[in-house]
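Record type: monomer structure entry
Structure origin: computed from sequence
Chain ID: A
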Amino acid sequence: MRALLATVEKIVDHDVSLLILGESGVGKNYLAEAIHACSARKEQPFVHIDCAAIPHDLFESELFGYEQGTFTDAKARKIGKLEAARGGTVYFDEIAALSTALQAKLLRAIEERKFTRLGGHQNVTFSARVITSTNVDLDALVQSGEFRRDLLYRINIVTLTIPPLRERAEDIPQLAAAFLRRSPRKGIRGFDPEALQTVIAYSWPGNVRELHNVIERAALLEESDRITVAALADRLRDGASLLTAAARDQWTLDQLEERYICEVLRQTRSNYSRAARILGINRKTLLEKRKRYGLV
């Protein structure tokens, strides 16, 4: 995260297109908003466009706007999101959701820095910074023909990849404490040691978003002045029970490793690539350990 933020500091005031990559829930939206808020454009609008939420047949009118009378319900001119962004930032969330036809129109607008409202004839210029994000492999989509190579080149002048929460467990206590402070429930002073260890040990498939939701729920349910294990979601307690059983029954490290690998494979439905990432080893090593322990 320090390396990522160091890169952000270098480019925050340079008007280059940014592509933010990361799994669902890692905080891509927050990073885009933070970049805008720390840039010279902070006094101008930040326009968030959720590409997956806007129906494809409405996307052009949302993006470019339209003139009065363009279609039956066009009672007055509508300003599109590109025009509304003016000299600020326009953020395309989950850009991979766009059809190739819409990708072509967006590419032209970005390249020419101008567009025409639907039903209009005059060019409208825009100078907003373009930030995009996705949680899918765009290179793979390019290879399959689902994403335009020229658009990818245009939007990823600088690529920022946010690591999943399971790869930065040292951040979890600070994030959990920050979410607890923002909770609507006041008067809770922190976490008891067992609860905090349980939170750190969990794999967080939903990343920062899931952590936020878990802490907010625990704060609402907790009856004491510190978050306890009892207030945490069942899925976290189930994960902690593995360590509890290991200590109680005095397992060897090999026994603990075998059971942990088995549990990770169960949770990932035997997706070996994903399981290897969670375990912090490569896929070949995971397959060797699977063979060693006789895991099916």
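Annotation 1: The longest strand covers residues 129-134.
Annotation 2: The chain has two domains: 2-163, 166-293.
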